[in-house]
Each structure stands twice: as structure tokens, then as C-alpha cells.
Design goal:
With 126 residues, this protein is mostly helical. The chain contains five helices and no strands. The longest helix is centred in the first third of the chain and has 27 residues.
């Protein structure tokens, strides 16, 4: 009974290690830039993209509460989202040096400009 329990605990620990590895890999996204030419630039793009997304998330969350000027918070959040999409395009295309099929880029191509329009809409109070 004790050996069975020990084996289950070991399996749970190994499973947790795998999940932690996947989470850290997803945050660093080393696989995305491993084969790209502009690794240093792309590290900076990843960092600034992740920061922009985090700030946008905070602004959207704060805008849910009744605080003055929520439309400005949403506008800035949408602009940060548009910047993040542009950076995503740069990452996926290796700083525009490789051609990626439009089917894979459709969402980034559509949502980036849409976020700019939504940001302008909130900025002007519509």
C-alpha cells in the first residue's frame, strides 16, 4: 500500500513538473524564435508584447469598475492590443523576412486594425 502511494505521489510530481515546464515555455516562447534570424530583436518583441498585453488586461479590468474616464482606459488598452498584434505579426514572419500563409495570419491581420478602430472609438467617446 505504501509503495503504491509513493508511486502515485511520484507520478503527480512528474506531472506537475511537466505542466510547469509547459507554462514556462509558453511564457518565454523559445520555440517560436529558436529558428529565426533576428533572435535578439525577437526577444525584445516578446518582452514588450507580453508587457503590453499585461497592461491592457489591467486597464480593461480597471475599466469594469465605475472609475472616471473608463473610455480612455479602454482606448489605451485597445491601442496596446493593436501593438501586441503587430508584434505578433513581426514574430511570426521573422521581422517580415519570411512569407507566412495568409490563412495563418488572418486573425492578426484583422484584429490589429480592428483594435486601432476600437481604440479610436473609445478615445472619441463613441
Amino acid at each position: 500500500m505504501s509503495n503504491l502511494l509513493t508511486e502515485e505521489v511520484v507520478e503527480i510530481i512528474h506531472g506537475a513538473e511537466d505542466v510547469l515546464h509547459d507554462v514556462l515555455e509558453g511564457l518565454s516562447e523559445e520555440e517560436i524564435i529558436a529558428h529565426n534570424k533576428h533572435k535578439r530583436v525577437e526577444h525584445i518583441l516578446l518582452l514588450t508584447r507580453n508587457i503590453a498585453v499585461a497592461i491592457a488586461m489591467v486597464f480593461f479590468t480597471v475599466s469594469l469598475f465605475s472609475v472616471p474616464c473608463t473610455h480612455y482606459l479602454k482606448a489605451v488598452a485597445y491601442f496596446l492590443g493593436a501593438i501586441a498584434y503587430f508584434q505578433e505579426i513581426m514574430l511570426l514572419t521573422d521581422c517580415f523576412s519570411k512569407q507566412v500563409p495568409h490563412q495563418e495570419m488572418f486573425m492578426a491581420y484583422c484584429f490589429g486594425p480592428m483594435y486601432v478602430l476600437l481604440g479610436l472609438s473609445y478615445l472619441f467617446g463613441h
